[in-house]
Design brief:
290 residues, 41% helix, 2 domains, alpha/beta, 10 helices
């Protein structure tokens, strides 16, 4: 009897608790004004190869109307590196691009041992990744305003896609750090670039000129080229600053909105303070050239 009495004594407490929890859950589900929480999605796939993946960083309060997307492409001479490179820039990107979602992509790398994944594998993977990303915009609740960014080989791939395949993703602008822009003129820079490009592009600029040309962003600059901001150190001994100077000449020739910033005394990679300032310069440029 004592057990039964205790049950009936506590019954109102149980009922009140259940009603309270139920009402809270219902309120959360039907509140149309509640902002979406921030969300991170790792190793999302866009193909069968393990390298064909990307990470997604979605901000709190995102909407289809007001949350643009910045896609970051890593460097590594097309033979190394990963999407994790973005993590070192993420805090600075979030500071300068506060309303943006970000995606960092991997792509298949050239393998010197097996000779797999020669050009244009990397170019094609960027296309596949962007197509998959576009198919997710509704689910992620972000807009279709897309900016491409990347450093070194990633800057090359961002420029190549934005200039050659701009309609795929309707790319609105490009941010590039110390990018290769003309693989034919880069070929003779030093022994490493010569031997590397000869393998990755299956020949030299003389024996395989079509591939060198079709893989070079400068080949696709015209009056319709999208706004571009790019940065290069004056003592870069991996990708010479002449690569960015060539790009600037072409952009001037076709009166393309651009900004080229040289970084005195720095090489292939900048110090943290410089990155912070340049990323803010990039954000300002993108805002001024929608």
């Amino acid at each position: 009897m004592k057990s039964t009495n205790r049950f009936f004594y506590l019954l109102p407490v149980y009922v009140f608790t259940l009603l309270f929890l139920f009402s809270c859950n219902r309120g959360e589900e039907i509140d149309p004004n509640a902002p979406l929480p921030a969300l991170e999605l790792f190793d999302q796939t866009y193909g069968q190869d393990p390298r064909q993946s990307f990470d997604v960083y979605l901000p709190e309060g995102r909407t289809r109307e007001n949350t643009p997307l910045l896609i970051y492409i890593h460097g590594g001479a097309w033979i190394d590196g990963s999407k994790d490179e973005f993590l070192q820039f993420k805090p600075w990107m979030e500071q300068s691009f506060p309303d943006y979602a970000f995606v960092a992509i991997n792509y298949r790398l050239y393998d010197f041992n097996t000779e797999a994944n020669s050009f244009p594998t990397q170019e094609n993977d960027v296309i596949l990744a962007i197509e998959q990303i576009l198919s997710e915009l509704d689910e992620w609740n972000i807009s279709d305003q897309v900016i491409l960014a990347g450093g070194s080989a990633g800057g090359h791939l961002a420029l190549l896609h934005g200039y050659k395949h701009q309609p795929i993703g309707n790319i609105q602008g490009i941010i590039a750090f110390f990018p290769p822009t003309n693989l034919s003129t880069l070929y003779d820079f030093n022994f490493l670039t010569e031997s590397g490009l000869r393998e990755i592009l299956e020949g030299t600029p003389e024996t395989n000129p079509e591939l060198y040309q079709s893989s070079s962003p400068v080949s696709y600059v015209d009056e319709n080229t999208i706004p571009t901001i790019f940065f290069h150190g004056t003592v870069d001994n991996v990708v010479p600053i002449s690569q960015s100077e060539e790009l600037e000449e072409k952009l001037i020739q076709f009166d393309v909105a651009h900004r080229f910033i040289t970084v005195p005394g720095q090489g292939h990679g900048f110090d943290p303070d410089t990155y912070v300032n340049l990323i803010e310069e990039a954000a300002q440029f993108i805002r001024e050239n929608p």
